Amino acid sequence: MLRLIGEITGYVLAAEDGEIGRCKDFLFDDTQWAVRYMVADTRKWLPGRKVLISPISLGEPDWDTRRFPVKLTKEQVKNSPPLDEEAPVSRQYEIHWFDYYGWPYYWGAGGLWGAAPYPSALYLKRLEKAVEKETARKKP
């Protein structure tokens, strides 16, 4: 089902361990016509701060309760690279931001989401890497 992006503005953002704020806005890639980030207003939880949430970490919204699950912890969001609301999101900032979360870069393989067909596939790739790393660590 298609939805207007404005309908999501104001939705409660539910991290894995509690609420982190509300959906404030979206940042679009003007060359690919894709939503690159949701801007989360965390003013009640982290006063005076807005953070970026990638579609990579968004779950399926609950349209009835107006809640949007975020596959991150509050600690991850709290310690994320600070956002300068007055400056454009530079590639340098994105590299720092993607490295912080451990996401593969979307601009690397030429597709809309790099080597993945959709954002949540990048989340799954990160999980697969974590499992491989843990399995290798446990081998004698």
Q: Major sheet: size, sense and barrel closure?
A: 5 strands, mixed
Cross-sheet strand order for the largest sheet = 4-3-2-1-5
Low-confidence segments, ≥5 residues, pLDDT <50? none
**Assembly status:** single chain
Count of helix runs: 4
Please explain how this structure is put together:
With 140 residues, the protein is α+β, with helices and mostly antiparallel strands. The chain has a single domain (5-138), classed as Photosynthetic Reaction Center, subunit H, domain 2 (Photosynthetic Reaction Center, Chain H, domain 2, Alpha-Beta Complex). The chain has 4 helices and 5 strands, in the order αβββββααα. It has helices at 5-8, 74-78, 91-101, 119-138, and strands at 12-15, 18-29, 34-41, 50-53, 67-69. It has a 5-stranded mixed sheet with strand order 4-3-2-1-5. The protein starts with a helix and ends with a helix.
Topology at a glance:
Layout: H1 5-8, E1 12-15, E2 18-29, E3 34-41, E4 50-53, E5 67-69, H2 74-78, H3 91-101, H4 119-138
Parallel strand pairs: 1-5
Antiparallel strand pairs: 1-2, 2-3, 3-4
Record keyword descriptors for this entry:
alpha+beta; Photosynthetic Reaction Center, Chain H, domain 2; 4 helices; globular
Question: What's a concise summary of this model?
Answer:
The chain is an alpha+beta fold and 140 residues long. It is built from four helices and five strands. The protein has one domain: Photosynthetic Reaction Center, subunit H, domain 2 (Photosynthetic Reaction Center, Chain H, domain 2), CATH 3.90.50.
